[in-house]
Design brief:
Its main location: Golgi. It is found in: Golgi apparatus membrane. Pfam families: Exostosin_GT47. Keywords: Glycosyltransferase, Golgi apparatus, Signal, Signal-anchor, Transferase, Transmembrane. There is one protein chain. The chain folds into 2 domains: 193 residues, Rossmann fold; 206 residues, no CATH class. It has 16 helices and 11 strands. The longest helix is centred in the C-terminal third of the chain and has 23 residues. The strands form 2 sheets. It has a 6-stranded parallel beta sheet with strand order 2-1-3-4-5-6, with helices on one face. α6 runs antiparallel to α7. β9, α12 and β10 form a beta-alpha-beta unit. It is an alpha/beta fold. Bound molecules: 2-acetamido-2-deoxy-beta-D-glucopyranose (3 copies). One 2-acetamido-2-deoxy-beta-D-glucopyranose (NAG) binds next to α16.
């Protein structure tokens, strides 16, 4: 069984290039859902039927093979970021577990007073540590937003998600574990907490009722849920990318890609222009990267002597952040090269600096891509093309003032989608992420109903835990 699965993965990886090429212009409109169900799930024709680089489910189980169920994804709406009515109408009912505080605000040195496991956000909001920890702080903003939804003041805000206390009435069951923070700050403790979380969840009726399929779990830092994910995989994860996740545990159909919180401050009142931004292409980042890292090294050799290119290796600490801010705000284009994972906060730093991102990361997944056309404000180049002599620099030089200015304006229009804040505001990252979750809900219901078909005849009512890998 494992053999089959992994052979399948390897095979599909080797055919990825062609698949990407074929599908390039069709995506994302041609996305299909594939099923993922512990008992079944087959992808038959890898090239034409699976989506995004074959990141569909590759779990093969000979004993119980069902037909591959496919359905078209929710059609792309004419999405207009300025159209407020759309934001206001989608409402997601969220049941949030009252997890012990050691899983969330306790990690921020907050101690419960009285019975509540939650801080009283009217009086004091525990502070999330700054610096690079912040880039994965999605857990914190989403949880605060759910807590806020219970206060009467929040009714005046436009909001997408509200907390409900009866789980039968909820669209989604939210698990408020600050896994990224726990990994960043207390990596040993993180493993213990993951085990505890699995025990906690699987003992609860909500999990048993759906086998976890309607649960939403945060794992934005790629290493934050390395253990628990093998058991909690039926849930929807909030991730930064799929780089370290096997496709049967996480994939673009089931899971939600959330942006990093940018570490560079937004460029307010940007009145720069094509001509005033003196650097053509900017990159600052670490060089000692694993996996995707050799591309960085090669690009460095290709670009370092080109006119207008700033390419340097440096860390994003302190002075690094100040320099990067200046650098990105005075550059026309900002390079995004895959590092040890396909995504990085650099993309979001570039967006809020209105520096047109040039993305060289074949496996990257982008937040809200079902409603947002990134080609309007980003340049995508395949790695193998970028590594051809002169290709990248000629490509970038071919983009003239008008085209660049259109992309720059678009960046200013959409940057709010990547802003995390409290209280959250209309159309910001918090609301956008809830909307992505809301769009997954019909699919989650379908999965749950399908998974119930054979319950009566075989295993009894309890959909417990089944570990994979
Ligand atoms: C929760 O909601 C369900 C469905 O609406 C209802 O049948 C049930 O009585 C509710 N439970 C409580 C404790 O209110
Ligand atoms: C941006 O411009 C607005 C209006 O012109 C002004 O009120 C605000 O202070 C400016 N902000 C910054 C950071 O310069
Ligand atoms: C799943 O079943 C419920 C009844 O339990 C029904 O209300 C719902 O519409 C079904 N969902 C789908 C997607 O068929």
């Amino acid at each position: 069984m494992f053999m089959i699965t992994w052979l399948f993965v390897l095979h599909s990886t080797s055919s990825e290039d062609t698949a990407l090429e074929l599908d390039h212009n069709l995506l994302p409109n041609s996305k299909h859902f594939s099923t993922f169900d512990e008992s079944s799930s087959v992808v038959k024709d890898q090239n034409s039927e699976s989506s995004f680089a074959n990141r569909a489910i590759l779990l093969v189980d000979n004993e119980n093979v069902e037909a591959n169920y496919k359905t078209k994804q929710i059609p792309e709406t004419n999405y207009n970021p300025k159209c407020s009515s759309m934001h206001a109408k989608v409402v997601l009912k969220v049941f949030m577990y009252d997890l012990p505080s050691e899983f969330h605000f306790g990690l921020l040195d907050w101690k419960p007073e009285g019975k509540s496991v939650w801080p009283d956000i009217k009086t004091r909001i525990p502070h999330y540590p700054g610096g690079l920890n912040l880039q994965h702080s999605i857990e914190y903003w989403l949880t605060l937003d759910i807590l806020l939804s219970e206060l009467p003041e929040s009714a005046s805000n436009s909001r997408t998600a509200i907390r409900v206390h009866n789980s039968s009435e909820a669209d989604i069951i939210f698990v408020p574990f600050f896994s990224s923070l726990s990994y960043n700050r207390y990596s040993k403790m993180n493993k213990v907490l993951q085990d505890k979380l699995v025990k906690y969840l699987t003992a609860h009726e909500e999990w048993k009722k759906s086998g976890g399929r309607d649960h939403l779990i945060l794992a934005h830092h790629p290493n934050s849920m390395l253990d628990a994910r093998k058991k909690l995989w039926p849930a929807t994860f909030i991730l930064s990318d799929f780089g370290r996740y096997p496709p049967n545990i996480a994939n673009v159909e089931k899971d939600v890609i959330a942006p990093y919180k940018h570490v560079i401050r937004s460029y307010v009142n940007d009145s720069s222009s094509f001509d005033s931004r003196s650097t053509l292409l900017y990159f600052q980042g670490a060089i000692n990267r694993k996996d995707g890292g050799h591309a960085r090294q090669q690009l460095y050799s290709l670009l370092k002597d080109e006119k207008g290119v700033h390419f340097s290796f440096g860390s994003a600490q302190r002075d690094g952040i100040r320099k990067a801010t200046e650098g990105m705000q005075s550059s026309k284009f900002c390079l995004n090269i895959a590092g040890d994972t396909p995504s990085s906060n650099r993309l979001f730093d570039a967006i809020v600096s209105h520096c047109v991102p040039v993305i060289i990361s074949d496996e990257i997944e982008l937040p809200y891509e079902d409603v947002l056309d990134y080609t309007k404000f980003c340049i995508f180049v395949r790695t193998r093309d970028a590594l051809k002599k002169k290709f990248l620099i000629n490509f970038i030089r071919s983009i003239g003032r008008d085209e660049w200015t259109r992309m720059w304006s678009k960046l200013k229009e959409i940057e709010n989608f990547f802003e995390f804040q409290f209280p959250s505001k209309e159309g910001d990252a918090v609301q956008m992420i809830w909307q992505v979750v809301a769009r997954k809900v019909p699919f989650i219901r379908l999965k749950i109903n399908r998974s119930r078909r054979f319950l009566r005849s075989l295993h009894g009512k309890d959909m417990g835990l089944k570990s994979i890998l």
